[in-house]
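Reminder to self: keep the SMILES exactly as supplied, no canonicalising. Ligand is magnesium ion.
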Amino acid sequence: MSDSRGEGHGPGAIERPALANETGDYWGSDVMALMLREIGLPYVALNPGASYRGLHDSLVNLLGNVEPQMLLCLHEEHAVAIAHGYAKVAGKPMGAIVHSNVGLMHATMAVFNAWCDRTPVILLGATGPVAADKRRPWIDWIHTAADQGALVRNYTKWDDQPASIGAVPESVLRAYKMATTAPCGPVYVCFDAALQETRLGDLPKLPSADRFRAPAPAAPDPAALQAAAALLAGAERPVILVGRTDRDEAAWACRVQLAETLDAIVLTDPKTGSGFPTRHRLQGPPAGNALSAEACALLREADVVLSLDWVDLAGAFKTAYGDDEIKSKVILASLDHQLHNGWSMDYQGLPPADIHLAVEPDIAVAALLPLLKPRAASRTPMTPAAPAETEPSAPSPGIITPVSLAEALRDVVGSRTTCIIRTPLAWGGHAWETNHPLDLLGGDGGGGIGGGPGMAVGAALALRGTGRLPIAVLGDGDTLMGITALWTAVHYRIPVLIVVANNNSFFNDELHQDRMARQRERPVANRWIGQRIADPEPDLAMLARGQGATGFGPVRDPAELVRTLRQAIETVEAGGVALVDVRVEPGYATSMGSHYSRR
Ligand SMILES: Cc1ncc(C[n+]2csc(CCOP(=O)(O)OP(=O)(O)O)c2C)c(N)n1
Ligand SMILES: [Mg+2]
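Structure tokens returned for the bound complex:
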């Protein structure tokens, strides 16, 4: 590490005091940097660029690279994925800064993931000089775009390009307020390079952020609330669908209390992470992307369904009811409609709602509780399973499957408190027991592969010092697309364990080719072509080691797996970054059972 880094603040901190500006000679970007501090951004993940060299200077030489502290990333997609992962744990945003149009283009998929995951990210960028006479030849011209925000407008809550220094504070304050008002999401503020580099002299008076915070959550309409309570009180077979809910312990306790009060079966979704204890007597069968036969039966039998912002409620009903009329009464607790636009269909099908409580789901839960009387416990969640349409073929002995990997990991983790930041596509259902909102963080939101490593680093950053062990179990395709995010974890001493469920394939898509071939009666054996990541097999452990992390594997033997995982956890507990390459049998646990295929 270079000598210029001071002690105490970690890599990147410098010894100059913050706000060391004795000359009264302030610049436009100083106002931008001071406002980023004012809204309380702890970090800004970034990849540098001349479009924001003014802001960069202010963050380093005015603020001393603290509050916010820069986190250098090797790709803009990592910068945003780190901010996404951080906010999922911290419940508040950090920043990401991306260079002009090109950095923003690199960042876009990660912005989309954060958008679909309804996660706040303060995305900052730059362009220009907007005034053409101030542009340097060539480079300033190719890196200046009119309406740069248009690149991300369809999947951000708001964007702005303040045209004067006087407009900067309001822009930053509004960005923060918009991002953190439910439903949350990413916002983008673009700073004109010439504005950043304008000499101001004296610093203008800057507003405090205190009067520009997100509003207190709205309460449900009293009549709609009474009607919902009456419907639930009269229900004989209520089902609660726990979707995008709060990661707050008090909200978790209220949800459990509501399920017990109503004696309602609860379905949870791996996409949205832990929302209800898996071992609770009222926890229903796994309900992942495709509802299991048991979950479908429960929904069809339900007289009242309470959806707590379930992702794709219409899709769940379609799976359960097919073309039949939906007989269940539906209570929707969601604000998501406020975010829907004409570009992204991530809003999913339009679900029926007999009562729509247009509030945050956990606000609805807290408001319903005092209106309901506890009823006797009589429900058992497990309706007899319909026979699986495809019998799972047993995995061969001596090999590791994604599910046996979960079992081994659970054994090694033992009584430690963990956060499973991501789970591989192959895990489905209830592969990991949850008892706390931070036990499982859920998916990437937008199904954009490559965000896994960055999200792991960001979530681990927010978990640093909490005593909760950060573990991300990722696919090899996801890992390889985002592998250089690990460098940021190593550089900034962010302990994290990455376990790669490595099937040497973009296997999800092998299954699609399998389906196509079967439908068309063509050779299924060719499904691997254009999918298999082999010849050569990338050496993931070496790719980790090449960035200063500790790399383990490839592990192919189940007997070796536990030993290796134990060593990797010791590495992380000692403050390190570890990656374990585990070669797993390609196979998926699906609603129809587990499918394994020998190569
Ligand atoms: C950016 C992006 N590119 C391609 C896809 C299509 N896709 C969906 S799953 C998948 C395979 C992912 O591979 P891996 O992470 O190894 O998981 P596996 O399916 O093998 O378990 C791909 C390529 C996508 N969702 N996002
Ligand atoms: Mg794979």
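Points to follow up:
Residues 1-9, 383-393, 589-599 have pLDDT under 50 and may be disordered.
The CA atoms of residues 425 and 475 lie 7 Å apart.
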